[in-house]
Amino acid sequence: IEKILHVDYEILTFLSYNLILWGFVVLIVLQLTSAPYGRYSRDGWGTKIEPRLAWFIQEIPAFLVPLLLLVTTKAPMIKYLPNKILLACFLIHYFQRSFIFPYLMKSGRPTPLIPFLLAFVFCLCNGYLQAGYIITYADFGAGLTSNVSYYLGIILFFVGMAINIHADHVLRNLRKPGEKGYKIPHGGMYNFISCPNFFGEILEWSGFAIANGTVAAISFAIFTACNIGPRACQHHKWYQQKFEDYPKKRKALIPFVL
Ligand code: NDP
């Protein structure tokens, strides 16, 4: 078992540093082009998949892999409450994202095969990385941890999740049945920024990283910011070009700042 755990640790470390590296690659690439799904969906990126099906299949590995690790593991850390709570946070997020989000989706552009496959592989590796680390290595000790940043991180995670879910709810209700066009979203965090769904998502994984304090969770937070931060800026520019009456004071991603 010790040998397997050792190999496991090397894979987790390898994945963590790769995720950081990929985050910076994605950040650079997204300065030159947009991720080809949603409003930027275009030809040349493979056959198109119905969006609800695409979201369900691409996100589900991040829910199933942790569950699989959970039921098969004999690793000691998962007996401890702080580890259980962190794993529950991850599972709640990906239950929402792979079951509820596609189920509630009313419309959306089809997803091309290549971004779909990239998202699928990402969710597979990241599900293994985050759950593997929490179950096997993140050490908060038995009982409740006295680490304040753990609790602050958990609060930030749920605040981010609430902002993300509310923002996606607003977008979903902009279109009447059969409509495919875009409208200006209003209300909640939309009064301050163009993309509170991405802002909420970044807060979520930053909180998760603060609570975890592990290289695995920090690498995920960095990757998320590098991936959807530029998308928020692209959406913001796109809105400003499309709508003359787009609110002038609204920022892209961070209220009053960016
Ligand atoms: P978008 O904001 O681009 O689109 C979300 C949905 O709302 C789509 O169905 C879109 O339709 C629709 N929509 C968006 N803007 C408008 C508008 N102005 N008027 C009418 N409908 C609109 O988000 P993403 O699809 O990129 O992301 C969806 C969720 O997944 C978010 O919560 C995001 O945080 C999360 N995500 C997380 C990532 C991570 O790295 N952790 C990576 C990517 C996404 P259409 O398809 O027609 O554009």
From TrEMBL:
<keyword id="KW-0443">Lipid metabolism</keyword>
<keyword id="KW-0726">Sexual differentiation</keyword>
<feature type="transmembrane region" description="Helical">
    <location>
        <begin position="53"/>
        <end position="73"/>
    </location>
</feature>
<feature type="domain" description="3-oxo-5-alpha-steroid 4-dehydrogenase C-terminal">
    <location>
        <begin position="110"/>
        <end position="258"/>
    </location>
</feature>
<feature type="transmembrane region" description="Helical">
    <location>
        <begin position="14"/>
        <end position="32"/>
    </location>
</feature>
<feature type="transmembrane region" description="Helical">
    <location>
        <begin position="148"/>
        <end position="167"/>
    </location>
</feature>
<dbReference type="Pfam" id="PF02544">
    <property type="entry name" value="Steroid_dh"/>
</dbReference>
<dbReference type="GO" id="GO:0007548">
    <property type="term" value="P:sex differentiation"/>
</dbReference>
<keyword id="KW-0472">Membrane</keyword>
<comment type="similarity">
    <text>Belongs to the steroid 5-alpha reductase family.</text>
</comment>
<dbReference type="GO" id="GO:0005789">
    <property type="term" value="C:endoplasmic reticulum membrane"/>
</dbReference>
<dbReference type="GO" id="GO:0030154">
    <property type="term" value="P:cell differentiation"/>
</dbReference>
<comment type="function">
    <text>Converts testosterone into 5-alpha-dihydrotestosterone and progesterone or corticosterone into their corresponding 5-alpha-3-oxosteroids. It plays a central role in sexual differentiation and androgen physiology.</text>
</comment>
<keyword id="KW-0492">Microsome</keyword>
<keyword id="KW-0256">Endoplasmic reticulum</keyword>
<keyword id="KW-0560">Oxidoreductase</keyword>
<protein>
    <recommendedName>
        <fullName>3-oxo-5alpha-steroid 4-dehydrogenase (NADP(+))</fullName>
        <ecNumber>1.3.1.22</ecNumber>
    </recommendedName>
</protein>
<dbReference type="InterPro" id="IPR016636">
    <property type="entry name" value="3-oxo-5-alpha-steroid_4-DH"/>
</dbReference>
<dbReference type="GO" id="GO:0006702">
    <property type="term" value="P:androgen biosynthetic process"/>
</dbReference>
<keyword id="KW-0521">NADP</keyword>
<dbReference type="InterPro" id="IPR001104">
    <property type="entry name" value="3-oxo-5_a-steroid_4-DH_C"/>
</dbReference>
<dbReference type="GO" id="GO:0047751">
    <property type="term" value="F:3-oxo-5-alpha-steroid 4-dehydrogenase (NADP+) activity"/>
</dbReference>
<feature type="transmembrane region" description="Helical">
    <location>
        <begin position="85"/>
        <end position="104"/>
    </location>
</feature>
<keyword id="KW-0812">Transmembrane</keyword>
<keyword id="KW-1133">Transmembrane helix</keyword>
<feature type="transmembrane region" description="Helical">
    <location>
        <begin position="116"/>
        <end position="136"/>
    </location>
</feature>
<dbReference type="InterPro" id="IPR039357">
    <property type="entry name" value="SRD5A/TECR"/>
</dbReference>
<keyword id="KW-0221">Differentiation</keyword>
